[in-house]
Structures are given as structure tokens and as C-alpha cells.
Amino acid sequence: MMLSQSVLDAYAVSAGSAFQFLKTTTVKERAVFMQAVADQIEALGPELLDAAHRETALPLPRLTGEKARTVGQWRAYADAVAKGLYVEARIDTAHKEKAKNDIRKYSIGLGPVLVFGAGNFPFAFSTAGGDTASAIGAGCPVLVKAHPGHPETSRIMAAAITAVVEASGWPPGVFSHIDGDEVAGTGERTGAYLTAHPQVKAVGFTGSYQGGKALLDIAGRREEPIPVFAEMGSINPVFVFPQALEQGAEALAKEYIASLTLGTGQFCTNPGMVIGVKSAALDRFKQTLRTGIRDILPSVMLNEHIYTNFEKRKTLLSEQPEIHIWAESAIPATGGQGRARVVETTAASFLTNPILGEEVFGPFGILIEAGSWDEVAAVAAQLKGQLTVTLVATAADMDAYKMIIERVKDKAGRLLFNGMPTGVEVVYAMQHGGPFPASTDARFTSVGPDAVKRFVRPVAFQNWPEAYLPEELKDENGLQILRIVNGQLTMEDISSGVCI
Amino acid sequence: MMLSQSVLDAYAVSAGSAFQFLKTTTVKERAVFMQAVADQIEALGPELLDAAHRETALPLPRLTGEKARTVGQWRAYADAVAKGLYVEARIDTAHKEKAKNDIRKYSIGLGPVLVFGAGNFPFAFSTAGGDTASAIGAGCPVLVKAHPGHPETSRIMAAAITAVVEASGWPPGVFSHIDGDEVAGTGERTGAYLTAHPQVKAVGFTGSYQGGKALLDIAGRREEPIPVFAEMGSINPVFVFPQALEQGAEALAKEYIASLTLGTGQFCTNPGMVIGVKSAALDRFKQTLRTGIRDILPSVMLNEHIYTNFEKRKTLLSEQPEIHIWAESAIPATGGQGRARVVETTAASFLTNPILGEEVFGPFGILIEAGSWDEVAAVAAQLKGQLTVTLVATAADMDAYKMIIERVKDKAGRLLFNGMPTGVEVVYAMQHGGPFPASTDARFTSVGPDAVKRFVRPVAFQNWPEAYLPEELKDENGLQILRIVNGQLTMEDISSGVCI
């Protein structure tokens, strides 16, 4: 669908004007709004699940879980916002020994945020997903560029948010749903056009490297560069260490296959790579992998584009001369169904052919057999930034391979000790983001309440009269938020003075 | 001075290897190191002040104050680092109702940080300045590109830090002093070369727009883009409102001149612009400005380059056809001494000639007389991002011009109610940074302990064995830092369990 430039400009201007309103809301008011969005989504009937199932081919149980997760995200972020964690209030009162002036700082939204929904999470990382919740929590209006893979799902979610905007009496520009891919008459993509729009002050994106990098470049070429947080996926290496492998090669291989093929491998935390050193135990692991993968039921991928791309990339990697063996699901697949495959190569090959380190989005894994731990260290050093790195290890392995473990810390946002990386919990301690190219800025996360931080900026008020300060910075702390007052974290009312 | 590529590469590699060490230090160990640097600088004798005075022409009392400020910065940042404020520890223990896994997150350094010293603060924002202290506090090795305006000062400061590195038994790559502007045989600048170096993971810069923007562009073109925090100055507009002006136009004009000419106007928070509406009181303000500026003693600027640039920019702005009057210091100046000047124009002119809104680094101010408050609002809307905006106002003015005040909030990092913006206190509540082009990323500050945040990234550990967790995340909280445990901020030892 095409949209005219003037329609897009109107959305952007409306968001800019809504920002003037949002700036004046308190953390509590935004938290109430966010809880109302959670209620609204929770109350959505089967039409939501049906539309998503029809548009993404994701099974209903998975979608039911994702809906609950989405509701949970709005509630968890709302709680964190209400506590004042992301306004980061700091008060330094004037006193003889230290500050000369009364200075108080808190964070406001950056301005309108452009959100790109992800195709693989139609609820949790799309129209009403984590980026939208983070931006609203930060005090930013949101312009959602609807994902073309699930337009009806996106419209239902957009309507849920719009209903809360209306019921709250908030200006309509707080949330806009941009349902169209191209700017009429220009051939330009709506997403690119809006990323370059002066009213837009930040971008949240989940998707491919190509997509995220293109937005980052557009944002950097603006007269006023703006922050882009793009989560661009990764291959999520799994390092298997000798003692752990010795204790259960077959069980580990089965656990790996289950994670690799979960949801037809369509997760950004899909473990697309295993690295180990040649041994009898690794042979058993490989054997179980080769036979186990044959039994994996092919399933329909998110859309034609994802499926075609999966087949193309899978074939490209498999056809590299360094791939000496591969195994795949033996169960016949019909059109659009991804068949899981694992391929094997050596560390020496991996180190010389960069194609072998590229992500294949879908149920595809590469096993890298190293001849020595030095080779494993070289593979670790060559790895690009990752969302996750998993260590399959025992305590003895951790002691023996300390240096390798220290080095992989530099490569990822989340480090798992055993287990598998699929499953990204929405908790404070979650880090979903990592060194480039896993994300565009390793300093932030797109999952967990801390995701709000991406969209705020601090503003300091110097000698500002109490009456004109935002609620968050007034002496009495009526909102009961956490603040740092003269260096001490406190929730105290300081209207009768501060102990220094 | 020229440096060879191999020397620069060696510095970068040494920093990269020191990062592996720094990553393993605790917040307490880094805080101890930082306090030792503070001690070392404090103990420096007159040779430091003499060198700086000779190289920058800054008066000794000012340098004495700046030295104390620099020591204070190291101590304040060390305190904040020791409290764990910037590791932002979050622990979510596995429990039936909420998290499925035990996930713990804290922040580590980004890696080696390249710091560019500023010419106007040879101590506080240069070799041993705020960026270096922030980076070390974050756990990042530092490569300082010495400012060519004060090489000897820079060497003395570098030696002080190096002495602490040695005394602590830390690897030498923790701190490197790059004293040379050009890469031998290439014509390339050392700063540009190192910004593009794969070992460098972030940049801290204080200086001109041209300099900061060039680094931002280099960093964005890297295969792995890295964050650049550049503080690039601004014109720091002062809005004068009617009732405040009525109550003391003459006193305000004098206060303004004092701030404008302090330190020969060589502050990034220098108030280079005043905006008011035509009135008898504004006429009195202007009259005092014109006569007051005549008595300002010219003083030697930081260096020949700064002086020449000041004269050139001052003349360019004064010669714009829209400048109908200007006044300057009537006291004869000798070579290298900047003579303070103020020029006057109308809001209509300001809105049409963008040159009038450009920064002139030095004692130069532009007064903009608006015909109406609508014109003031238009000027406010057209302003680029600023470090500060000052409102000279009474409570009645704040009520009457609420809309304008709301709009200027979007333009600055620090908002002053009366007073003048020069003087940037090193406190938690300080915000020094603002929307582009005041800085490259409005989400961060380069003054106050929060400056550390620029150089850290979170890493999450999932189901990690207690013994292998960093001290900051171990159950017992032996470092006694603030942590969010299952959503609650606490300093508790959780080794005997957590209440949910």
C-alpha cells in the first residue's frame, strides 16, 4: 500500500504535537495508561489470535503465550516506570560545602519514536510490542510502521492502543499506525522517509542486519542525527566443553536440536552454531545431531519471503566447499515449510570463509569442529557481536577454559551457562542486545523494563522555583519515586530540609 | 609531531589487552585507583600550574580552581562507581511464579575509549579530565589524544596517571598518552586514525562542532560503528522576560556581561545570545550592555588559533547587514587579546539569516529584539540544540509565558531560572550535553558522575554458577552495592534466599 507524503507528514506533526502533551505527564500517569493498554490487549477476543495465526502461520498455543507475554510486558514496564526508575531523578540542593546552586535532573522522552514491528513476534515485538511500550513509558509518542507480514493483526493491536488514547483523553498523535510500505510517487519506503523526518527523534527496530543498518545510516545522515536501536539478530554460538560433553553428548544434542528447531527456528536467539573440539564425545554429539534432525517435522514459516530466504541461504551455506557433511529432516515438506538442516565444518574452514559465519534465519545450524582449544579461541576472537553466547560446561570446564570464557564475554549481551538461548524472559536482569552487529548500540536492551532507557534524555533544572518543577522533582516526592538526593538514594520528602 | 602507524597500533593493541584486565576489576578496585589518581594530581606542585599558565594564558587563580575541580571530579566519580551506580546490578532469581531462570546483569566497560582533551580546560576536560575519569570508572582503558594547545601540561597529567597505573600493578595499556597530531607518511590525523581503529570502542570529545561531527562520521562509517560522545558547545540563549527586566534591567545587563566575558568568554556554556521583546526596560538593558562592554579589559585568549578564529567569526557576524549596532571594549588590546563585543539585531533578521545563530567562541554576544512574543516563540522554535537555556523571569513571567518555556525545554540539557549558565557544577544532578548539535547524543552527560554511563554496556548471566559470577552479582553482595533484586532495590545479602 502507498501513502502520500502529506499523510506521512501529518502523522509526524501530530506525533510532535502529542509530545508536548506527553512531556507534561507524570510517571504515574503513563503507568496508568500502560496498564490500561495491557487490560485492553488482554480483553481482545479470538479475532486477534485468528488473524495472527492466519497471517503468520504461528500455532495458536504459541500465539496465546505471546499474547500473555505482551500483556505482561506492558504491566512490567508500567511498574518500573511508576517507580521512577527511568526518570532517574537526582537532586542536589544548594549547600555551603558542596553544590552552590539547587540543581535537579530527571529524564524526559526524546520525542516521537518510530517503531518497526518484527515479523516473527506479531504481538510481543510488533505494533503493541516492547518498543512501543518502552517509548510510551519514556514519554514518547509512537509512530508504528506496520509489519507487512501481519497487517490485520497490526490493525487490531493498533485499535486497542487507540482506544486507550481516546479513553484517556490523550491527543491522537500519541500513537499512530502507519499501514503502508511506499511513499506515493517517490518509490521511497515509508520507513526510510519517516526515519529522515525532522519530527522523528528515535527509532526502534527488530529485524535483519540489512534493514537495521540501512536505518542507522539514514539516521546518521540527518542534519540532526538521531539514535537508532536496531536488534538485528545473531547466530548465538554454543560452545561445548569436554567434561559436559562427556557426561551427556546425546542428551545435549537433543536439547540443541529442540532449541534450534523451536518455532521453526525463527527466533533471533536461535542457536545457529555449535563449537567443540574433536573427541569421541563430540562424535557422539554429531551422530545424535545427524540422526535427530531427520525426525524434525517441517513446519510452515512466517511468510513466503522468510521461507524463500531460508531456502536460499541454507543452500548457499551448504554448498560452500568447506561443508563436508550435512543432514536434514527426512520428512517430506510442502510449500512454505522449512526443513531443518545441520551442516558440519572445521574451525580452519570457518576462520577462512566468512560466509560460514553468516546468519541463516530459520532451523539451520552449523557445527564447527576444532582441532585444538587454540582454534576454538581463534573462532571466538573472530566472532562478531552476538545477542547470546552459551557455554555447555561443568565447573571443571569453566576452570580449564577460563581464557576462552573471558574472551566470549566481549562478544555477547547474554551469557548462558548450560541451557539454550531461545526464551528471552521479560525481567530487569534481561539483556537483549549486544555488540554490533547483534544490535546497533550495545549499551541498551530491547527486552525487560530497562528497554525504556533507550528513549529518554536528562534535563537539569537549576534554581527552578518549586512550583514550576515537574512532580518528579518537587520536594515532597508526592509520586513516591526513588531519587538520589545529595548523593543518597532515597524516597524521602525533603520539604523540611535535607541532612547532608 | 608525527607518529608512525605501528606506534599507534601498538597503543591500541595495548589498550585492548588492558581491557581484558580491567574487565575483571571490581567497582571498589576501580574506585581505589581513581582516588589514588586524585591524590596524585592533588600533590602535583607548581610545575603543573606554571606549565598550564604558560601554555594557555589562563590566570593562575583560575587554574588553581580548575585543579581542585579536577581532583574533585576523580573523587566524586570514584564514590559513585564504588556505590555500584553504573554497574546497574539487577538480579532475577528463578522462582515458580515469575522468572524461569536465574538471570543476573551488570555493566562492563565498552572497551578502549579514545579521549580528546579540550583546549579551554587543560585540567578538568583534558588528559586527566572528566572523560578519562568516566572511562576508567566504567572499566575502560583510555587513549588520550593530547591537546596540541597544552602539550607540557598534558604530559605532566599523563605522568601522574601513569604513576598510579604502575603503583597499582595494572597493565600499562590502561592509560596511553598519544602526543602527536599526524600519522607519519599518510597526512591523516592521529585522532581520525584511532577513531577508525578496530581496538577503539568509544570516543569522548569536547570541542568544536566541526571536530565532533567529523569523529561521529568516522565512527559511523566503521565496519563496527562505535558510540561517540562529543560535547560541541552552543550559544546558550538567555530569554529575558518583562517583569524580571522591569525590576532590574541594569543589574541584569551587568550580570550578563560578567558571564559573557568570564574567562575571556571561552566556556562552552558562555551565554552568547539574549532574547527579549521591545520595551523601555529592554532599552535600558541594551543601554547598559553597550556602555558596560566598553569597560571590559581585553585578555589573552587560549592560543593563536582560538584568537584568530574569534576575530574572524566576530567580524563575520558583525558585518551581516542585519546587525544595526554593535559595541565593544574600548580598552586597547595587544596581540592575542580578545576584545569583548555585543551586537544587536531583530528577531525577524535572526529568523532569516542563519549565520546570526552560529556560535562565536569567545566574549561575543548577540541581542535579539523581538517585536512580539510570537516572534520570541518563533526564535525559540528555530533554535538548535543547546547545552543550556536561561530564563530571566519572575513567577508571574513563568505563568504568562508558559508555552514558550515548554518549548525551550526541548532545546537544552540544562534550564536555568535566573543566574547565568557559566559554572558547571560537578554533581549528580548536572546535565552537560543537550540535543544535537550541543552534543552528539542527548541521552548522556559529560559532567557529573553520570558521565560514566556513556562507556558501559550491560551483560546478563543466565544460570551462571555463583563461583564464576563477578563480585557485583554474587549472592552475598560483599561489595555492598545497590542492586535491583526481583524488582526491589536493595543492598541485601541474598545468600539465604530472597522474599518474593
TrEMBL record, chains A, B:
Q: Which InterPro entries match?
A: Ald_DH/histidinol_DH, Ald_DH_C, Ald_DH_N, Aldehyde_DH_dom, Aldehyde_DH_Superfamily, ALDH_KGSADH
Entry keyword set: Oxidoreductase
Entry superkingdom: Bacteria
- One family from Pfam that matches here is Aldedh
User: What range(s) does the Aldehyde dehydrogenase domain occupy?
Assistant: 9-434
- The yes or no answer to whether the keyword Transmembrane is present is no
CDD domains, per this entry? Answer: ALDH_KGSADH
Q: What is this protein called?
A: Aldehyde dehydrogenase (NADP(+))
